[in-house]
Amino acid sequence: MMTSWRRKVLPLASVLMILVVLAVYIGNRHILTAKAASGCTVSSSLPFNFKGNAIPAGDVIWFTSILHVNGLPASLTEVDFQNQTIQFAANGQNYTLAVPSASVQFDPNATSAATTTLGQWQTTVPSTINGNTFLSGYAFTVPAGGLPAAINPVTWSGQFVLPTNASLTVNWEWTASVYSSFNWNYSQLGVKPVDDSRLSQYQNSDRAGTPENFKSFVTSIFRVGRLSSSASATANEQCNQSNTQGNSPVAAWNDQVTFTSGPFNGQNATTIITFNSDGTLTETTTGPTGTGNSTGIWYITGFDQNGNTLFTYIFDEPQSGGGVVHVSQSATLSQDNTQYTSSGGGQFIINGQVVGQATTTTQATHL
User: Fold this and answer.
1) Rounded CA gap, 225 and 228, in Å?
2) What are phi and psi of 187, to 5 degrees?
């Protein structure tokens, strides 16, 4: 199975990451003030202009967002960020990147901070935290031809889901940095959950969202400067009833794949895929590229207007002739949890070089 997947990293934050690691951060900040009503959702969008050096193909851009919340009550409080996208246009192509959903819990009983990736970004921090907390992240692999020095604008959008028992002020911003080596399996990144140098296992001054296991691969400075804006939302203006309850794809599926472009255009393949509760997957594909087995990841990105769950799944499928197909699909799971459809594609990679690509659509049913 295949998917047109381009992910690499471009962290956008501020200044340098510590002595040897010179990171470029593109910063965008937004302040949201909302009196939370029952099931309140607040839409927010932060545009930013990239200005700097061109980014070569194969490098990774790590987009990361952070938040700081004021007005937290003494009880357990959760702030969710759903239906996130990063949109931009470059080299005549429009990009819409589906960012994993995020959930941040402010726990009065917590004594340390941690981030996990169990089907979405999940971060838990003490309610008394000072400084910023990691919100969500996305790795984008720069496609063939690279990206130009100026991209205007790059816009991160999403919907905050606020609790019902408090009047909160949510400050959020996003950043991006370029890496020469990265890992699309987010559980391998070692994402620092907070700015604080004592609350997590990463006892350093790096910013929240730093991929600790890969920070030595930051390659160049890509600074755009900072942009500040603010927006307020009230229950009557921008707070809407939220639908945060959706289905999960955790199960085994029969995925019928149709190639819609590339060397196998018009041909079909069958993928038996199992989504596990820990955000991993296993799959076996039989088709024009042969039979392959692999593991990968999946994560929920949000919900559509009909309440269907939106999710993304990614894996690298080894090929019998050498190399891999890097697959990424964006899927919609039906409300009755009996089927999903997806679209995406795959990049054929040999010795680290993209030698071809294809797009696909799929229809899947429960096994």
Assistant:
1) 10
2) -70, -15
